[in-house]
Amino acid sequence: MTEPVLETRGLSKAFGALKATEDVSVALHPGEIHAIIGPNGAGKSTLIAQICGALVPDAGQVRLMGRDVTRLPVPARARAGLARTFQISQLAMEDTVLQNALLGALGASGRPWRFLRPALGDQSLRERAEAALERVGLAAQAATRTAELSHGQRRQLEVAVALTLAPRAFVMDEPMAGLGAEGSARLTRLLDGLRAEAPILLVEHDMDAVFALADRVSVLVYGRVIASGSVDEIRRDPAVREAYLGDSA
Amino acid sequence: MSRETLVNLTMLAGLVLVPLWALWADEPFTITLATRAVILALAAAGLNIALGIGGLVSLGHAVFFGIGGYAMGVLAYHAQTYTPLMEAPVLIEGTKSMPVIWLVALVASALAAFVIGLLSLRTSGVYFIMITLAFGQMLFFFTISWARYGGEDGISIYLRNGFPGLNTLVPIQFYALCLTLLVLTLALTAALMRSPFGLALNAARQVPERVRAVGLDPFRLRLAAFTLSGAITGLAGALFADLNRFVSPSMFSWQLSGEFIVFIIIGGTARLFGPVVGAVLFVALEHWLGGISAYWHIWFGLLLLGIVLFGKGGVIGMIAGRARTHD
Amino acid sequence: MTLILLVEQVLNGLQFGIMLFLLAAGLTLIFGVMGLINLAHGSLYMIGAFCAAAAAAATGSFLLGLVAALAGAAAAGALIELLVIRRLYARDHLDQVLATFALILIFSEGTRWVFGSFPLYLDVPEALAGPVTLPGGIQYPLYRLTLIGAGLSVAAGLFWLIARTRIGVQIRAGENDREMIAALGVDIDRLYTFVFALGAALAGLAGALVGAIQSVQVGMGEPVLILAFVTIVIGGIGSIKGALVGAVLVGLTDTLGALFLPALFELVMAPAAATQTGAALASMAIYILMAGVLIWRPTGLYGARA
């Protein structure tokens, strides 16, 4: 098997007596979508926070491209090639759609210390931002104030900002949150095409999307990975059915 | 042309024409009043970079104003008493040259802003407000006990400092100098708002998490903005001291810090000309209301309360409507 | 330096700190429960002092002056809460700063209008005038000692109110979860007005008590307000215990800094230069303390982790 792009090894984090994640090891390989599912409170958010650098684990490692990034702060991890999307859209609502995408391109360029020339006049930034908007289908809304976008469009913009980073790996925190069937299907198609560029670690509640997209699924319950395997294996796993999916699944 | 641009141009035209009229009508006091307004506008324009774009509610910007003032006071004091500022390890003498004084004021207040920013930007919200206020008070008490430079009494400078090629003693010439610096600062601010740095800083105010997630550090962006902001307010302090030919600890007073914020809000937050409109209005009201009632602060306080509670967007907001996104 | 001087200065620092606590406790409660930063808290301190001075002058009774201070400040607090402050809870801190800054202007000029620019004097009551002899033969003003005692009793009362009473439960609930207290059927508007008036009364009391050892004048509230801010930045915003610890730290640092720093510099400098440098540094000592705490613990000694 190829070297994983993103990997956690024995990640543990406790808040007092509560073990939010316990010995979590997951790997993300090139070209795949690896879904993490689990009931509310299973520790998915804590796991993402540790992977992206917002929380320092008590024990264990986070490795990106074979390099230990466990101690790197959030911005450094982003510069190392990790792009994330947020469960609740984190977008500059006062700014235009293009400006939000430009922010991503600016982060990727690593050159924010320019004070005089307009950001919009920088062709390389602009092309990068516009390409990302084109990719998610928001090119027509480039000049719109972000606050005026629909919820579904905001979810698409979240993905576009991550795309501008041209990352080595995506970490997506419930990208389908709050979307209807149509929006969900649209975003599913988009993510399906993205895995060729960089693999996606996908935390998601929408089971249709997970089963449609995932190459591998890991199930997180009470902070532990109780099962990991292909979609079919997970569907058949009796422990998963009992702990999470219920008999209806 | 948007209505905001129209308001800005009208304001600018007024700042050029009114003093020219005063010159023609031989009303030197109006020119002094206008100079005061322009310098206060410059101080608030400095703050606007931190507060308007960066969302940093600094209630201690008078620190930088005061440091700029003392940069002028100390240098000019040594020049007028023919005593060196420092003899060892290198000889440093005083000066009466405005460009040199400005440079010192800029550098000194930038340094102070950097250090204060380094400490206070670790916090946010009310902590930040209280801490900047406290550092302001610290410098206030320091200058009071700084007996070498007059302590509570401050320093008087007998003659206004000079600028090559100009006679700064002529009010309109000094005014032109101040207005030029204000216009340059506004041009810089306008460029900044659209620049990559401005984009990132503006985003760090709205969604710091996102800014981190794209690989930028909001703390550094804010520190840079705060430093630049302090430097400009410091420059204004040097000019203010030259206008009055006097510096004292009162330049550090917390009321002044509050007034800088008030100028920005009266004019309109994050508007390029917000500080200008606010400062001009303040100086005009101070002159006009102050002439009617010795207790004009009551009426000003009520007016301010009304604007905060009911008039979103300040004067420019009321005239020109919602802020445009910069593109 | 004698031991007597040291004890005296420690007591002075304690007295200053305890008075600071009365102010800081109200500020931190108001922030903790309502999320409001109130710059006009110093005005309430001033109003308390003026009410006390006016009532004491009219009746000749210091005690009635204190009652007037409590009542006047609480009434002023309740009034501005109803008219202005409650419109600010949902606003950002910038609006709160500006509106309460406007209130300072109105209160300060209003007081000047009514009482004039000259300071008023509030006399220490006769029964408490003069020194008292402490164990070890140290003479100390009885009034200042009483201030320490009175302040500590108020602090104890406040801790009791918050820990043991029904209103205390509501206050604590309000600090944690605003929606929860609404769900409990508490009248939030009334609770907020009460908390604000309580904070105002404490500030007014401090103003009256301190007014007897300093002069009562317009603008007396703001320097001490800023020190109260330093206090709660050190103690941690929202924590009454932090306010008490912070206040005593600030009080002691201020008086002991003024005592020791010049002496300390005399070890390495000529006396005249040492006095100057020492005094300059002493004037900044509490702010340096604040900076130190910030580096070590950005949210204060007892503050919640941000």
TrEMBL record, chain A:
SMART domains: AAA (SM00382). Residues 6-247 form the ABC transporter domain. GO terms for cellular component: plasma membrane. It holds the Pfam family BCA_ABC_TP_C. CDD domains: ABC_Mj1267_LivG_branched (cd03219). PROSITE patterns: ABC_TRANSPORTER_2. Keywords: ATP-binding, Nucleotide-binding, Transport. GO terms for molecular function: ATP binding; ATP hydrolysis activity. InterPro entries: AAA+_ATPase, ABC_AA/LPS_Transport, ABC_transporter-like_ATP-bd, BCA_ABC_TP_C, P-loop_NTPase. This is ABC transporter ATP-binding protein.
Automatic annotation (TrEMBL), chain B:
The chain crosses the membrane at residues 6-25, 37-56, 62-79, 100-121, 127-147, 168-192, 219-240, 260-284, 296-320. It is found in: Cell membrane. GO terms for cellular component: plasma membrane. Coiled coil: none annotated. It is a multi-pass membrane protein. One of its GO terms (molecular function) is branched-chain amino acid transmembrane transporter activity. This is ABC transporter permease.
TrEMBL record, chain C:
GO terms for cellular component: plasma membrane. The chain crosses the membrane at residues 16-37, 44-60, 66-85, 97-122, 142-163, 191-213, 219-237, 244-265, 277-296. The keyword Transport applies. Keywords: Amino-acid transport, Cell membrane, Membrane, Transmembrane, Transmembrane helix, Transport. It is a multi-pass membrane protein. GO terms for biological process: amino acid transport. One of its GO terms (molecular function) is transmembrane transporter activity. It is found in: Cell membrane. Belongs to the binding-protein-dependent transport system permease family. LivHM subfamily. This is ABC transporter permease. It comes from Pseudoponticoccus marisrubri.
